[in-house]
TrEMBL record:
Protein name, as recorded: RNA polymerase sigma-70 factor, ECF subfamily
Subunit (UniProt): Interacts transiently with the RNA polymerase catalytic core formed by RpoA, RpoB, RpoC and RpoZ (2 alpha, 1 beta, 1 beta' and 1 omega subunit) to form the RNA polymerase holoenzyme that can initiate transcription.
Annotated InterPro entries: ECF_Sigma-70_Domain, NTF2-like_dom_sf, RNA_pol_sigma-70_dom, RNA_pol_sigma70_r2, RNA_pol_sigma70_r4_t2, RNA_pol_sigma_r2, RNA_pol_sigma_r3/r4-like, WH-like_DNA-bd_sf
Keyword entries, A-Z: Sigma factor, Transcription, Transcription regulation
Domain named RNA polymerase sigma factor 70 region 4 type: residues: 105-155
GO molecular function: DNA binding; sigma factor activity
Domain RNA polymerase sigma-70 region: 9-73
Family: Belongs to the sigma-70 factor family. ECF subfamily.
Gene3D superfamilies reported in the protein's UniProt record: 1.10.1740.10, 3.10.450.50, Winged helix-like DNA-binding domain superfamily/Winged helix DNA-binding domain (1.10.10.10)
Example GO BP: DNA-templated transcription initiation
Species, as recorded: Pseudonocardia thermophila
Length: 287
């Protein structure tokens, strides 16, 4: 297979791999480098022997990021958020504004996790990768990987839901729900971070629809699919984290769990699986 044919297979996976590496590494340039390394490894291998290219690329990119996170722990560096892509001098005020816009708060919370915790959380909670596959990436048992994910989730929730942030988080959730109800694409783009990720339980999806969608524009383009549940959704705290719920006849039928990047939504998950809903601790959001 020549390089053009190989690139045609690889390029559709690039946005998802870039979003994955961005959340694992916290930097756009580092994410681009990791994805490029994955491309080079694909070039150096035999694609004909790969049964699931998307899964293979996710695993390879994740392992590259794990190595870089571990190296970062061995030689700590200050993480200030995304770098501006253009070379040359950067105005400090402009740099701070860009860092805030892409989610410094979330990156700081993620950076407080160990490399293994960060990988377990991002792969499972954001990109819906099964724990069995994450265990292979980390070289740990499935049970140990599940514990890493649970611990990371608690730490992320604790860091993302400080009491002083709840009022602001509620306003973001209400803006998001209102935009969905009205089918307002512009308002959705305003409340979502540019590289936002949307995940939906398969039980809520029509056949052929993807469980994971990456990118604010891609999410907004299919937003009307979930306008129905949004009309009934109300803000709530789910396991102590900002979210929204749909309750019908006293029964929880849909839950939406959010992760924020400052004043925007970095990712959200629409939960409809009865077992997962039953395991959620739902509280009224303090007004």
């Amino acid at each position: 297979m020549n390089d053009d044919e190989l690139a045609a297979l690889f390029e559709p996976h690039r946005p998802r791999l870039r979003a994955l590496a961005h959340r694992l590494l916290g930097s756009v340039p580092d994410a681009e480098d990791a994805v490029q390394d994955a491309w080079l490894r694909l070039q150096g291998g035999s694609v004909e022997e790969i049964g699931n290219l998307g899964g293979w690329l996710t695993t390879v990119t994740s392992r590259i990021c794990v190595d870089r996170l571990r190296a970062r722990r061995a030689r700590p560096e200050l993480l200030t958020g995304d770098c501006i892509d253009q070379p040359g001098p950067v105005d400090p005020a402009a740099e701070a504004e860009v860092a805030d816009s892409v989610g410094r708060a979330l990156l700081v919370v993620l950076d407080s996790l160990s490399p293994a915790e960060r990988v377990a959380f991002v792969l499972h909670d954001v990109f819906a990768v099964p724990f069995a596959e994450i265990a292979v990436v980390l070289g740990r048992s499935v049970e140990a990987t599940k514990k890493l994910g649970a611990r990371a989730r608690r730490r992320v929730q604790a860091g993302a839901t400080a009491p002083q942030d709840l009022a602001g988080r509620r306003r973001v959730v209400e803006r998001f729900l209102d935009a969905l109800r009205r089918g307002d694409i512009a308002a959705l783009l305003d409340v979502l971070s540019p590289e936002a990720v949307r995940r939906v339980d398969p039980v809520l999806l029509a056949p052929g629809r993807s469980e994971v969608v990456c990118g604010a524009r891609e999410i907004a383009a299919e937003a009307l699919v979930f306008a129905g549940p949004a009309r009934e959704a109300e803000p709530a705290l789910l396991d102590g984290a900002p979210g929204a719920v749909v309750v019908r006849d006293g029964e929880l039928t849909v839950a939406i769990i959010f992760v924020f990047d400052g004043a925007r939504i970095d990712s959200y998950e629409v939960v409809g699986d009865p077992e997962r809903l039953a395991a959620l601790d739902v509280e009224r959001w303090p007004v």
